[in-house]
Amino acid sequence: MTMTPEEGVDSLFFGSVFQDPESVSKVLWLDEIQQAIDEANVDENRAKQWVTLVVDVNECLDRKQSEHILSVLKSSTSNVHDIIPECAIKYYDTLVKAKESKTDNVSSEGSWVKLNLQQKYNYYYNTDSKEGSWVPPETCLSKESWLTAEEIEDIIEEVTANYIRENMWSAPEELLLRFQATSSGPTLRKEFEARKSFLNDQVESVVKIQAFWKGCKQRQEYLSRQRVFTGNVDSIVKIQSWYRMAAARKSYLSRLQYFEDHKNEIVKIQSLLRANKARDDYKALVGSENPPLTVIRKFVYLLDQSDLDFQEELEVARLREEVVTKIRANQQLEKDLNLMDIKIGLLVKNRITLEDVISHSKKLNKKKGGEMETLNNTDNQGIKSLSKERRKTLETYQQLFYLLQTKPLYLAKLIFQMPQNKSTKFMDTVIFTLYNYASNQREEYLLLKLFKTALEEEIKSKVDQAQDIVTGNPTVIKMVVSFNRGARGQNTLRQLLAPVVKEIIEDKTLIINTNPVEVYKAWVNQLETQTGEASKLPYDVTTEQALTYPEVKNKLEASIENLRKVTDKVLSSITSSLDLLPYGLRYIAKVLKNSIREKFPDATEEELLKIVGNLLYYRYMNPAIVAPDGFDIIDMTAGGQINSDQRRNLGSVAKVLQHAASNKLFEGENEHLSSMNNYLSETYQEFRKYFQEACDVHEPEEKFNMDKYTDLVTVSKPVIYISIEEIINTHLLLLEHQDAIATEKGDLLNELLESLGEVPTVESFLGEGAVDPNDPNKENTLNQLSKTEISLSLTSKYDIKDGEAVDGRSLMIKLAVESTLQPQGIGSAARQGQLQPCTIDDQVVLNFLTKKLIIDVTRNQPGSTLTEILETPATEQQELEHAKDMESRASVDSRTPEEGKQSQAMMEDACLPLEQKKRKIQRNLRTLEQTGHVSSKNKYQDILNEIAKDIRNQRIHRKLRKAELSKLQQTLNALNKKAAFYEDQINYYDTYIKTCVDNLKRKNSRRSIKLDGKAEPKGTKRVKPVRYTAAKLHDKGVLLGIDDLQTNQFKNVTFDIIATEDVGIFDVRSKFLSVEMEKDLLQMQYEGVAVMKMFDKVKVNVNLLIYLLNKKFYGK
C-alpha cells in the first residue's frame, strides 16, 4: 500500500474523530486503517491525473498545437465520454480565449500549480522541476496564466452541453448514446424526453392539421389550372406545335453552326473517345474473365510475328550461344590457372621441374588464343551427317535431353544415385549445360524446378535432423550456391558487397586483430624492431596471460570498436539490398524453409530462420567477404593480392556476421570478445527480419509467367551447347541407374534409351575419317576431340502406339497431329507449350491448330460470338480479303529464317478458303468438346479465353525478350572482362616463367665457372662478407639457440652474411666443425613471426636479425 504521510495522518485523524462515540475503544481497527490508506491512494492518483490534465492542456495551448488538443483531453480527463471529437476545434478555441483572458491580468508569474481535493487537501506541483508535494512550499508563486483543472473541466462541460443541445433533434441513435454518456447527459436527456413526450401526446392533432392544410391548397391550385386549360384547348395545341417546331429548328441550326465552328475540337474529342474505347477494350482483354469476341478480334494482329521479332529471336539465340561458350571457356581457364598456381608452388618447393610448368603454360596460351573445339565446320559429319540412321540418333538425343530438361524428377533421382565426387562434377558440367546456365527465362524457370525437386528429394531421403542442413554439406544447396555465385550471380555479389569491401581494403589505417596472443606478439616484435634489443617479455603466452598487459587490452578494445563500425557498414549494405539478392536463391530459401517445416513440424521459427541464414549468408555471402579476390568481388591486377592485414580485417568482419546470422554468442575460447554479445543479439534481429523477407517471393510460374501454353508465341526451338564427352557420360549414367530413375516399364525415358541402344564412342560421334587409325597418339587425339561441342535443338517425342483404337475422337486428333508433326513441323509443335515434362498432349496440339484457324476466320468475318460466325456464310468480299491476308502472310513467311518458319501442313491450312476453314473449326470443336476441353453451352468461350491469354502472353514475351537481350549483353560484357583478366594472369605467368628460365641459365653459368676452378672474369668485384660468431650473435639477442649444442660451444660456429646483387636477398653460410650450410634470405619482411629456424637447427630472432641487416648493409 502507498500513501503520503500528510494524507495518511489526515485520514487516520478523521477516522478516529468520526468513530462511533459509544465505541468501547478509541483505537482504530485494521480495516479502518486500510480504508483510510485506500482513500489517500485514490486522492494521490486523482491529484496526479488532474496535474497531467492541467500541464498537458496548458502546454498544448502555449505551443498552439490545436491538432493535439483532442488526444490530450482524452488521455487526461476523468470522464472520456465528455470529450466529443466533433468539438475539438471548439474546445481549443474556447480554452485559448480563456487562457488569453487570464494571461492579460497576470503581473508576475510563478511555477507552482495548486490543486484542491475534496475541499480538504491542497496538492502543489512545480512545472519546472516536474515534482509534486502535499506540503506547501516555502515560496509558492502560482502560475497565474495557466488554466486550472476546474476551469478546464467547466469549459469542456459547457462546450459539450451546447453541442448536444444543437444536435439533439437531428442526431442518429448512435450519436444520442454518445451524448448520454457525457456528464451533461442526464440533464439534457430530461429536456429531450419532455419535448418528445409532448409531441407524442399530440401526434393525431398535428397530423390532422397538416393534412387538412396541404389538401386545401392543392385542390385550389388544381381546379384553377383545370378551368384555364378547358377553356383554351385549341390555342394550347397551336402554341405547343409552333413552339416545338421553332425550338427544334433553332436547336438544329445552332448545333450545325457549332460543329462548323469547332471542327478541330470535334476531331480531337472523337480521337480521344476512340482511344478510350480502345483502352477499355484492352482492359477487357486483360482483366475480364470472359473477354468478348468483338474485343479479341481487335487485338489478334498482335499475334503476328514481325521481322523485328525474328531478328530479336535470332539475336537472343546468338548471344545465348556466346554466353554459354564463354562461361565454359572461362571455367576451363580458371581451372587451368588454379593448376598453374599449384605447379608454380610445387616448382618453388622443388617438387616438379620447370619443364612441367612450361608445358602447362603452352596449353594455357593455346586456350587463350581461342582454340575452342566446335563442330561448325563438320555439320555434315558424324552424328550430324546426312544419313537416316544418324539423323534418327541425333533426334533421339534431342528428345532425350528435352525430356531431362523439362521433367526434373529424372535428374533429381540421378544426382542422388551417384557418389558425391561424381555428382559434383556432373552438376557443374552437364546440368548447368543442359539449362544453358539459365541464360533465358524459360531455362531459369526449368532449372529452379530442378533445384526445388532435388532439394525436396534430398530432405525427404537424406536429412534426419533439421540441423543436418547446417552441419552437413547438402548436394543441392552446394549446387544452388555454386550456380548463383557463377557467371550470372557474380554481378549481384559485386553490387551487394563490392563498395563496402573495397572501402575496408583501401583503408590503410584500419587494423582489426581480435586475437590477444597475436596482438601481444605484434607488440613485442614492434618493441624489438624499434630498439634493436631483445625483449625481456616471454614469446609464448596464453590468451589469459596476454590479456594481463594494458597495452594488449587497449589495442584489443580499439580493434573491437573498429570491428563494430566496419561490421555495421557491411550489415547495412546487405540488409538494404534485398532486391539485389537473386530471385532463384530467395526461392530456394523459401523451398528449404517450407520443406524443413513439413518434415519437422516441431521445428521453431528461429531454427528455420537459422537454416535459411546458413544458406543466404554463410554459404553465399560469407566466402565472398573473406576472399573477395577469389569471387571477383573486386578488381585485381595480374599478380596483385590482398595482404595479410586486409585479409584479417575481412575475416574478422565475416566472423562477427557469421555469429550474428546464427545467433551464436562469443563464449569459450572467444570469451575475450563477450563484450560484443549484445551487439550480436541486435544484429541477429536485423538478420532475422532480412531472412523472413527474403523468403517472401512469388512462385516461379507467377514470376516468369510460365504455363503449358507459354511456348506458343516463341519463334525458335530451345538449343543447348554440349560436348560429346558430356553426352556420352550422361548416356552412360542413365543406363547405369535406369532402374532407379525410371521404374515403370512404359516410361518415356526407357523408350528413348532403348531407341539409342549402347553408349556410342567418341569416334562414332565424329564420323569416319575424323581420326587417323594409324595415329600413334590416337587416344590423346580422341580425348581432345571429346571436348568438341555440338548444338542440339531440343524437341519432344510424340508417339502414337500401334493398334490404337480408331474412333472418331482419336482419328480427328491423329489427323491433326500428323498434319503438324512433319519433319519441319516437329520443331513448331515442340515449341507450342511444351513445358509439360513428358509427351505432347494431343488435346494441346489440336487446340493449337483450332485456335490458329479461328484467328484467321475472325480477322475477315465479324460477329458477336464464335457460333454466329461459324453459322453465317462468308460473303464474296470477305473471301477476297481473306485471300489477300493469306498471300501477305506467305510473303512474310518466305523472308523468315528456316528455324522460324511454320510447317508445310500449317501453311496449307492457311491457304484454305474461309468456308472450308470454318468447317474444319467445327469438326475440331466437336472433338475437343468430347474431351471436355470446350463447351457449346457457353458458345466455346473457353477457347476464346485461351486466344486472349495468348495475346497477353505475346506482349509479355516481347517485353521479357528485350529484357533478356539486355541481360545477355551485360553478362557477355562481364564474361569478356573476366576473360581479359585471365589473359592478363596468363601473361603474368609467362613473364614469371621467362624470368625463371633466365635466372636458371645465369645460375648454371656461374656454377660452371666455379666447378671448372677458373678464376672469375676480370673486373668482377667480390662483395666482402660480414662474419659473426654464434657467441656474438647470441650476445646481441639475434641467435636464441642451436639444437644439440651447448652455449659454451657457440664460439666454434661462424656465420658469413653476404649481400647479393639483388636488393634484400642475402646468402648466409654457417660453418660448424668444418661443415658448410647455405641459406638464402629472400626479401625478409615483418609478418609478426618472432622466431624462425635456419638450417633446421638454428633458432633466430627475426626482428633483431632484420635490425642487424638494416644496420650493417643499409645504414638504417
Q: How would you characterize this protein structure?
A:
- Residues 106-139 form the WW domain.
- The protein is mainly alpha-helical.
- It contains 43 helices and twelve strands.
- The strands form four sheets. The protein has a four-stranded antiparallel sheet with strand order 6-8-9-10. Strands 1-2-3 form a three-stranded antiparallel sheet, with helices on one face.
Q: What layout of secondary structure does this protein have?
A:
Elements: H1 5-17, H2 30-63, H3 69-76, H4 88-104, E1 112-117, E2 121-126, E3 131-133, H5 149-167, H6 173-180, H7 185-201, H8 203-231, H9 233-261, H10 263-287, H11 293-299, H12 307-348, H13 354-368, H14 388-406, H15 408-417, H16 420-434, H17 441-462, H18 468-471, H19 475-484, H20 490-506, H21 516-531, H22 543-546, H23 550-575, H24 583-599, H25 605-626, H26 644-661, H27 677-694, H28 700-704, E4 719-723, H29 724-736, H30 738-741, H31 748-756, H32 762-766, H33 778-785, E5 789-793, H34 808-820, H35 825-831, H36 842-860, H37 866-871, H38 876-894, H39 904-910, H40 914-930, H41 941-1012, E6 1026-1029, H42 1030-1036, E7 1039-1042, E8 1053-1059, E9 1065-1072, E10 1075-1082, E11 1091-1094, E12 1098-1101, H43 1102-1113
Antiparallel strand pairs: 1-2, 2-3, 4-5, 6-8, 7-12, 8-9, 9-10, 11-12
Helix pairs in contact: 1-2, 2-3, 4-5, 10-11, 12-13, 12-41, 13-41, 14-31, 15-16, 15-17, 16-19, 17-19, 17-24, 20-23, 21-23, 21-43, 23-26, 24-25, 25-26, 25-27, 26-27, 34-36, 34-40, 36-38, 36-40
